[in-house]
Write a structure and sequence with these properties.
single chain, 144 residues, alpha+beta, Thiol Ester Dehydrase, Chain A, five-stranded antiparallel β-sheet, four-stranded antiparallel β-sheet, 2 helices
Length: 144
């Protein structure tokens, strides 16, 4: 995975993801991005929730933005490209591109903060060096 070869997750648009016109509802794109993010993290031997000793850690979203370029429909098979747009001490911003047969259908960004979870409360903590190294392998040099 490099700036020229992003992680790709494939997904078929389910009937339950569509509105009465058969077009994927805007909320479906957020689920697709989340599924792709989880698959991306698994490919790096990481997870969205984990335990380190007695600590529970997670990546809650603090920002998400999506631009819709073209509609997708029931039964379309889309590819969701995932790359790291920005990596900070405690946060990562992902770039998502939803494509259908090579055409850009939607583009999105999502920022997640690495947090310790204690009794249901979140506190941001630095991303471990080994995770930084893995995430850096997917860092975009430029947004294409």
């Amino acid at each position: 995975m490099t700036d020229s070869t992003p992680f790709v997750y494939e997904r078929r648009v389910a009937f339950s993801d569509t509105d009465m016109a058969g077009i994927a509802h805007f909320t479906a794109f957020m689920r697709y991005a989340e599924e792709a993010e989880h698959a991306f993290l698994r490919s790096l031997d990481m997870g969205i929730m984990e335990k380190r000793g007695e600590e529970k850690l997670s990546w809650p979203r603090v920002n998400i933005h999506c631009d819709f370029h073209r509609p997708i429909h029931f039964d379309d098979v889309v590819q969701i490209e995932v790359a790291v747009k920005e990596l900070k001490e405690k946060a990562v911003t992902y770039c998502f591109k939803v494509k259908l047969k090579g055409k850009l259908m939607a583009s999105a960004t999502s920022t997640a903060v690495y947090c310790k979870v204690t009794q249901g409360k979140l506190a941001s903590v630095p991303i471990p060096p080994e995770f930084v190294e893995r995430l850096r392998s997917a860092l975009l040099i430029e947004d294409k």
